[in-house]
Amino acid sequence: MRDQGYVMIARNFRSPRSRSELDLVGWDGDTLCFVEVKARNTRDFIRAKEAVDTQKQQDLSRVAQDFLRKMKGNPPVRFDVVSVYLENGGETAIELFRDAFGMS
After folding, report:
1. Tell me, what's the pLDDT at 94?
2. Over the range 39-67, which residues count as b (16 or more CB within 10 Å of their CB) and which as e?
3. Any idea where the domains of the chain sit in the sequence?
4. Number of CB atoms found within 10 A of residue 21's CB
5. CA–CA separation, 37 vs 24, rounded Å?
6. The domain defined by 2-101 carries CATH number 3.40.1350.10
7. Backbone dihedral angles phi then psi of residue 28, each to the nearest 5 degrees
8. How far apart are alpha carbons 77 and 79 in whole angstroms?
9. What is the pLDDT of residues 14-51, one digit of tens each?
10. What is the number of helices (H) and of strands (E) in the chain?
């Protein structure tokens, strides 16, 4: 994420109001990004990005709102998804999906 220009400020942030957690939180310029990380062994089935279904998006939005309550100001926010594919032979492929979904 740092190679993409993000400045990470939190990881594994939890809220008592939700069963989900924010995997990563960081700044991409002036935008505060909540990043969901999904790992897969193969691309043959559902892609990691699609694994963040509507229910998961709503859970992540609730946790993000709790995170924002602790911050000063009202920065622009977005949700990104990072797909990590553990390929055969031990290689790792990473895809970043910026603005994958909106706050619900």
Report:
1. 87
2. ebeeeeeeebbeebeeeebebbbbbbebb
3. 2-101
4. 14
5. 8
6. yes
7. -120, 90
8. 7
9. 998 888 899 999 999 999 999 999 887 765 566 666 77
10. 1, 5
